[in-house]
Amino acid sequence: MAKFNYHALAWREEKWYVARSLELEVASQGKSRKEALVNLREAVDLYLEDEDSNKFSLPKIDQPQVIQVKAI
Q1: More confident call, 5 vs 37
Q2: 33 exposure class (CB count in 10 Å sphere: 0-12, 13-18, 19+)
Q3: What's the confidence (pLDDT) of residue 72?
Q4: From CA 60, how far away is CA 58, in angstroms rounded?
């Protein structure tokens, strides 16, 4: 399997931390931010396991920004 770099966002929800890949619809959780990110890496690896690395490519995200948007 080819190596991919991807961006992740991690935040706390009550007693758990959630980590989510920005490029893929994959998320995970853990009791700490580090654990959530380790679990996300494992989830992404499992997600990509069946992908043909010669044909698969992640969407390119250049300089992602976190922006708060107010709901109407």
Answers
A1: 37
A2: middle
A3: 86
A4: 6
